[in-house]
Design a protein that fits this description.
Layout lengths: L1 E7 L5 E6 L5 E8 L4 E4 L3 E3 L8 H5 L1 E4 L2 H11 L7 E4 L9 H13 L7 E5 L3 H10 L3 E5 L5 H7 L8 H10 L8 E7 L7 H10 L6 E7 L13 H13 L3 E4 L18 H5 L4
Parallel strand pairs: 4-7, 7-8, 8-9, 9-10, 10-11, 11-12
Antiparallel strand pairs: 1-2, 2-3, 3-4, 5-6
Helix pairs in contact: 2-3, 4-6, 7-8
The structure holds iron/sulfur cluster (SF4).
Length: 278
């Protein structure tokens, strides 16, 4: 595998188009902060989950990555500095490729990353969440994006199979504790899930799970998806409502937006799946 193309956003975030040995492509992102370098790894070519806001979801699912291909992304990006953190938040649903992701996590551990530095993100597959809690001690992130099943089903179709109550029951079985909280990811989409009522309902819902922190992610525009980002004031009000409800809440700084490297923006066009772009 090799880097076929690299783009650098104005904030220093680097996005890599990685060509796999079978000619398929995935994207990997290196997010550079003052003291940390975080690698965002893909686990699948495309994704079967079809989340409404997500560029990868629009691609459909092609195949799982092997553990070597997952670690290969880490190795290819390592030339840009010592990677201190890894998040499985790139293309694909990591728990839909469970064994390869766990194998890759174990390799990262052998490379010296502590459990605290490895985060696996999921839209919520209950039996795999439980398995992950037994097989590893990774940090867990849940892509929730809505405070009730009716709304979540419109944003995260998998919710029809695994409603919030089932996913939360699995999260409660995960070894969560202080310093290993469940990260709730919530993409704020203008007029869809960002109202004061949504924030209030979310604050009540989250009381069901211990050790929760909330990451609000103002929606990153994607060509061909008719969602938009809420005004800053609306995001701030949503955050404040959750803080008032007792939750540690941050608005995630959007890194890499001008190179489409931000959350939900990773995609590889069909043409690139068959054309060597290097
Ligand atoms: S948000 Fe994640 S799980 Fe959902 S479609 Fe995109 S890559 Fe797949």
């Amino acid at each position: 595998m090799e880097i076929a193309h690299e783009s650098i956003a104005s904030d220093g975030t680097r996005k890599f188009l990685v060509k796999l040995d079978d000619g398929r492509f995935v994207e990997s992102v290196l997010i550079i902060h003052k003291r940390t370098i975080c690698a965002c790894l893909s686990s699948q070519v495309g994704c079967a989950m079809k989340c409404a806001f997500c560029a990868t979801g629009k691609m459909g699912f092609t195949r799982n990555l092997t553990s070597d291909e997952i670690i290969g992304q880490f190795d290819l990006m390592s030339g840009h500095g010592k990677i201190t953190n890894v998040v499985f938040m790139g293309m694909g649903e990591p728990l839909h490729n469970y064994q390869n992701v766990v194998d890759a996590v174990n390799i990262l551990r052998k490379r010296g990353l502590s459990w605290q530095k490895i985060t696996v993100s999921t839209v919520g597959i209950p039996d795999k969440i439980r398995a992950l809690g037994k097989d590893t001690q990774c940090k867990l992130a849940l892509s929730l994006h809505a405070p009730n099943d009716e709304l979540r089903q419109k944003i995260v179709p998998l919710n029809a199979k695994y409603p919030i109550a089932d996913v939360f029951a699995a999260c409660k079985d995960y070894p969560l504790r202080k310093k290993n909280e469940l990260m709730i990811e919530y993409v704020l989409i203008d007029g869809v899930n960002d109202s004061p009522e949504n924030a209030k309902e979310l604050g009540i819902l989250l009381k069901q799970v211990p050790f929760v922190v909330v990451n609000l992610i103002p929606y990153n525009p994607v060509t061909g998806i008719a969602f938009s980002r809420p005004q800053k004031e609306k995001c701030e009000a949503f955050k404040q409502a959750l803080i008032d409800a007792g939750f540690k809440t941050i608005i995630r700084t959007t890194k890499g937006i001008d190179s489409n490297a931000a959350c939900g923006m990773l995609s590889v066009s069909k043409e690139k799946q068959i054309i060597n772009v290097s």
